[in-house]
Specification:
By secondary structure, this protein is of the alpha+beta class. The protein has one domain: Umud Fragment, subunit A (Ribbon), CATH 2.10.109. It is 23% helix and 24% strand. Strands 1-2-7-3-4-5-6 form a seven-stranded antiparallel β-sheet.
């Protein structure tokens, strides 16, 4: 192999590795724990989520991965329960984004009305009987949404 051919092959291999690393960093593998998203997502099911850089690509109805709050309304960063791993994440459906009307169940639980304020969102579990969500911990800061589950 000539030095130029070797250099071209090495450069191509480096490019492939760089693309693999970039894809790996942009995706999360999340195992569903609990029944809050049943029947859409069942316990033990593994989903792939794409990290979000900004809230611009999020839409109401998306299933998202978000950082779990410390306690209702306390979105301390980083979470106190250790490293930011799957134990610190929740899977929920985005019910409303800034400017959207607050869903009735959340408005009643929180005693609020009108549109969702800037910088926050509303998340709900599909299985409301088994879900701890915005009805319990309030609005979610949009910067705590870390990924959107891919279909």
């Amino acid at each position: 192999m000539t030095p130029w051919a070797f250099a071209a092959a090495a450069l191509a291999a480096t490019g492939v590795v760089a693309v693999c690393v970039r894809v790996r960093r942009s995706r999360l593998r999340v195992t569903v724990a609990g029944e809050s998203m049943a029947p859409a997502l069942m316990p033990g099911q593994v989903v792939i989520a794409h990290r979000v850089v900004s809230s611009g690509g999020l839409r109401a109805g998306d299933v998202v991965v978000l950082v779990k709050p410390e306690c209702p309304g306390n979105w301390r960063w980083p979470p106190a329960d250790g490293p930011l791993g799957q134990g610190s994440w929740l899977l929920k459906r985005l019910a409303a984004l800034p400017g959207d009307p607050v869903p009735p169940a959340v408005a009643t639980a929180l005693g609020v009305s009108g549109p969702v304020p800037d910088g926050v969102a509303v998340v709900l579990g599909d299985n409301t009987a088994a879900s701890v969500d915005s009805r319990d911990f309030g609005f979610v800061p949009v910067d705590r949404v870390i990924a959107r589950v891919l279909r």
